[in-house]
Amino acid sequence: MLPIHPALSIRLLPRRAAVLAFVACATACALVGCGEHGAGTRGEGAGLSTAGEGKPSVVATTPVVADLVRAIAGDRAEVTALITPGVDPHLWAPTRTEVLQILEADAVFMNGLLLEGRAGDAFARVEVSGRPVVRLAETLPKADLLTDAENPSRFDPHVWMDPLLWARTAPAVRDALVKVDPAGKEEFDRNLAAFEDLARELDRECALILSAVPPSARVLVTAHDAFGYFGKRYGLELRGIQGISTESEPSLAAIESLVAEMSERRVPALFAESTVSDRSVRAVIDGCAARGHEVLLGETLFSDSLGRAGTPEGTWKGMMLHNARSIARALGGGS
Q1: What's the domain range around 316?
Q2: What share of residues in the chain are helix, strand, coil (percent, to 5)?
Q3: Which of 13, 38, 86, 281 has its CA 20 to 30 A from that of 192?
Q4: pLDDT higher at 120 or 212
């Protein structure tokens, strides 16, 4: 770790000068071990943002986090998502340009619970400056979080998969925005209430869609274990080929065990994800076929990211409804 006193000393400088003076040191810490991989996982089009005059400049890590922040901020802040759609946040590490964005932001929002596991030191450096850094999932009580079966000391970060749970992180967004824009409090309060209404309606829609899945078919098999909160909320039994983090590769023994279970229980389908290689998914399909059990490859699900901007799946609500409908269709719940 870098010593803390340089970060403290930059408080005495104007922010732009302090950031430029410090960014080389911060990126050295953030990018250790990343090499070209950090740039390769970033996606395209992630240049520096320029805040509108008088508007706070806000940075969010994932598209899902950015969607929530924009819902609360409305037009009162410029919100930039660092990670582009289709990029796996488990494997993302900020580039030098992105570290500069983080260090210059008026507020920073991230999912937390190690979803952005390679994020490095830049977020802590913003906290030293006194500006808000909000780890949304970590604002929830631990009693409401699922643990990682492979590492019980860690929590499952995919809390946005339960609409009501995700809505409970929204007040922390409102509070941080009020800190950087006190005059916007009334608008932020209205937007928060609207988002909570949207989450309740979304929850009802997903529950209705998935209620059509027969009890015998309520087993959801996905590329990695990102749907734990979704399954808990809507009564689905979960199996992930990979664990909660995509950094771990599934073993041959784990794949063979899943193939045996799916074949024995006649599980009708499994699902690839937009941010995860489908190599292991296809290995499971082939393994089931060798046992005489044909498995349907369902529509690709969105787990750790949204769809492309401008599509229905490019919003959190649209992504959740796409997942619910795709799962229901593949598991025998009709259209």
Answers
A1: 211-330
A2: 50, 10, 35
A3: 86
A4: 212
> Do both 275 and 155 map to the same domain?
no
Helix (H, G, I), strand (E, B) or coil at 72: helix
Burial of 2 (0-12, 13-18, 19+ CB in 10 A): middle
The number of angstroms, rounded, from the C-alpha of 204 to the middle of its chain's C-alpha atoms is: 22
Residue 184 lies in a domain: yes
CA angle 17, 176, 5 (to 5 degrees): 40
pLDDT band for position 123 (50/70/90)? confident
pLDDT in tens, 206-256: 999 999 999 999 999 999 999 999 999 999 999 999 988 887 788 889 899
Same domain flag for 267 and 159: no
> Position of tokens 């890590």?
61
Backbone angles phi, psi at 292, to 5 degrees: 85, 15
255: domain CATH number?
3.40.50.1980
Longest dimension (CA), the chain: 70
Q: What residue ranges in 35-96 does DSSP mark as E strands?
A: 57-60, 78-81
Structure confidence at residue 53 (pLDDT): 61
Tokens of 232: 């808990």
Tell me if 42 sits within 8 A of 69, measured CB to CB. Answer: no
pLDDT in tens, 164-187: 999 999 999 999 999 999 999 999
Q: What is the SS3 assignment for 134?
A: strand
Rounded to 5°, the CA angle 104-17-179 comes to 35
- DSSP string over 199-266: HHHHHHHHHHHHTTS-GGG-EEEEEES--HHHHHHHT-EEEEEE-SSTTSPPPHHHHHHHHHHHHHHT
Res 2 pLDDT > 60: no
pLDDT at 107 over 50: yes
Q: Collapse the DSSP code of 61 into the 3-class scheme (helix H, G, I; strand E, B; otherwise coil) and give the result.
A: coil
